[in-house]
Amino acid sequence: MVRTAAQKIADVLIFLCGFLIFCDILLLPLTPALAYFRFQNPASMRFDHLLAVFAYDFDDGVGNLLEIILKESWKSPETAVLALFLLLAGICGAVILVQGIRLLASVADGTPFSPKNAVYLQRAAAGCFVIAAGALGRTAFTLCRDGAAALLSYTALFIPLFTMAGLLCLVMAGLFHRAAEMKAENDLTI
């Protein structure tokens, strides 16, 4: 059977989503350290300062980094809230990507109108709504701490962005569900 252009594109997108999940898994444990460096010592975000964590030897550097990840980044409210938001967004982003891979795999297999695809889109929508809720929480925290400047942050932009993405996923889930029903009815018709 000849593969269509949509199936070939789905294969490429599956690879790209897999690569993004791999990067997400690698970076997710480091997000508390990024939050720590963002608020506690912004100048240390330069590459030479980050390398100074490993100044003596690799074992001491790993120990220093683990201390920052497990202990130091949770001491102040700003870093804790940012770290929690980044962890939540990273985990939900991975869930969204996994659901996307599953949906793309059914497209690559030539069965795009499967009832499973509606479920995948509903799960992706849930991930989008959780990210939007986390962004709302972080924006509310920053609004109480910094005032109206919080409304100009990227986190405030995530609220409508991921809410709309979640709603779009729900609409697409409804369309895929209806298409699967129509395909099942059509398959029964002789």
Give a verbal description of the structure.
The protein is built from 7 helices and no strands. It has 190 residues and is an all-alpha fold. It has one domain (5-39, 76-189). The chain is elongated and about 70 Å long. The model has no long low-confidence stretch (mean pLDDT 89).
Explain briefly what this protein structure is.
The protein is an all-alpha fold and 190 residues long.
Summarize the SSE layout with pairings.
Elements: H1 5-27, H2 31-39, H3 47-52, H4 58-70, H5 77-108, H6 115-146, H7 154-188
Helix pairs in contact: 1-5, 2-4, 2-5, 5-6, 6-7
Secondary-structure element series:
HHHHHHH
- Kindly state the percentage of residues in helix: over 70%
The profile of the biggest β sheet is:
none
**Quick one: overall form?**
elongated
Distance between the termini: 24 Å
Overall mean pLDDT: 89
Strand content: under 5%
Unreliable segments of 5+ consecutive residues: none
The total number of structural domains is 1
Characteristic terms for this protein:
190 residues; mainly alpha; 7 helices; 79% helix; elongated
